[in-house]
């Protein structure tokens, strides 16, 4: 007799949930108070200060409302996001969003590692006289930095989920002190009115719509990891309010500092180069010294602790026989190799922009389907036992909900079309409009092809 496949999921019972509201707040502020956020803020400098601030508030608010909604799902069920997405995409169909999640979190780990490795190259320059990355011979310092960061990541993930708490508790204090320090340095260099008056050269200008999509791609990346962490908290407020407040606070503060620091460098030097928006270059030009570079390395670890745990969870969902810890080791090694890509494909900014374009068009429709299915179709209730049951209510057609997959593919196409509409590209951005359209299409198609049977009285 052919044995039925097993699709186990890990559900965290209430008695085993040990993350407090402070832990959850620290996790999410630490996830965003990092190098990648700083760099994105520097990229948004091309919008101008006022437009960039509006983009940060609008895009982050919409994105982190989605994070809170997914966070509540984790709190109610005790399951990770990629286990919960089986309810909408089907048990086998969930492999597609799991693969997307796997690639994007490996990508974000590589982004943060590359920026931290750049800091290591500056440290080696200050301590040993090695050339910094970007100068002749600077690649060896960067490669050594990538190796150092990858070893640190392997050590941290070996401890598992508890390592996230330890890293965040230490990191959050140093991060706050560092960002206060840099805030003072920036505003000693230039005034707020100077920042407000500065505009990027016309050929480098970024529209508000492009800024919305850029930041949405960054922010929505965290949404698909929401339940991975909120399933460890006993309090509803810890699962909904704390992720929103922590993620928004970390994002706004660090993106603003990256934005302000990049503009201040452009004002004082007389030239604006978005390739120089990385934290290490800015910290060096602002004269912040070795301590600042060490903190940049630490903030990479705080963000990547979250990235790697989410990537490992996605890999475990695709291959249930792989336990979480080996999965974490595997994704850490893969991320190390991906970090080397910018050395062969041009500038880091080029690779980073291409990465944002990819995740921007694939994440929005995926999250839209996930939320609509749970909150509208299933009225905030998934049977977690059924999520692991082949031929159960989430099996759909041979384990795949083709309606969800079709909507996801359609969402990618609609996103690309919306980017060609002038008012969307220049003002609103395509991401959130695409999400609304896909939500409506999914609701309609599911009502037609998979009508829910009324419950017996």
Please supply descriptive tags for the structure shown above.
457 residues; Hydantoin permease; 19 helices; globular; disordered N terminus
CATH superfamily: Hydantoin permease
Domain count: the total is 1
The secondary-structure class comes to mainly alpha
Determine the CATH topology: Hydantoin permease
Number of β-strand runs: 0
Oligomeric state, counting identical vs distinct chains: single chain
Can you tell me the residue ranges where pLDDT is under 50 for at least 5 consecutive residues?
A: 1-5
Order of helices and strands: HHHHHHHHHHHHHHHHHHH
CATH class value: Mainly Alpha
Describe the biggest sheet? none
Mean of residue pLDDT values:
86
Question: What does this 3D model show about the protein?
Answer:
The chain is mainly alpha-helical. The protein has one domain: Hydantoin permease, CATH 1.10.4160. Helix content is 72%, strand content 0%. It has 19 helices and no strands. α1 packs across α14. The chain is globular and about 65 Å long. The chain starts with 20 loop residues before the first helix and ends in an 8-residue tail after the last helix. The model is unreliable at 1-5 (pLDDT under 50).
Topology overview:
Layout: H1 21-32, H2 35-44, H3 49-77, H4 81-84, H5 86-89, H6 95-128, H7 139-158, H8 161-189, H9 192-197, H10 208-223, H11 226-230, H12 236-269, H13 279-285, H14 289-318, H15 324-339, H16 348-377, H17 402-418, H18 422-428, H19 431-449
